[in-house]
Write a structure and sequence with these properties.
This protein is mostly beta strands. It has one helix and ten strands; from the N terminus they run βββαβββββββ. The strands form two sheets. A six-stranded mixed sheet has the order 2-10-9-4-5-6, with no helix packed on it. Strands 1-3-8-7 form a four-stranded antiparallel sheet, with no helix packed on it. The radius of gyration is 13 Å and the shape is globular.
């Protein structure tokens, strides 16, 4: 079964940047490469929401709330997906997770991201 391990969260001031990583533990390269991957977040008291998704460089999608500030990328050889987050605001405070866009793999722990002065 695939395991997802996210990293890179932390405390950052408004306007700052963070880069999240999510590594998938599968020995089957094709299993990973054929799946569109996404980043999700869940703020306290709110439902988990999708933030960004991509299959390849030509197919990236973002939630309106993060367009122009967040960038999703992936390295299939490393079975890792990234989320570069710039110009962070307190509204970005949440626990961040990765998964396929169909949410078909078990959720990881998710790194908390706190944006506060």
């Amino acid at each position: 079964q695939v395991q997802l391990v996210e990293s890179g969260g932390g405390l950052v001031q408004p306007g700052g940047s963070l880069r999240l990583s999510c590594a998938a533990s599968t020995s089957a390269f094709s299993v990973y490469a054929m799946n569109a991957m996404g980043w999700y977040r869940q703020a306290p008291g709110k439902q988990r929401e999708v933030v960004a998704g991509m299959l390849n460089d030509a197919t990236r999608n973002y939630a309106d709330s993060v367009k122009g500030r967040f960038t999703i990328s992936r390295d299939n050889a490393k079975k890792t997906v990234y989320l570069q987050m710039n110009n962070l605001t307190p509204e970005d405070t949440a626990v961040y997770y990765c998964n396929t866009v169909n949410r078909s793999w078990p959720w990881g722990q998710g790194p908390p991201v706190t944006v506060s002065s």
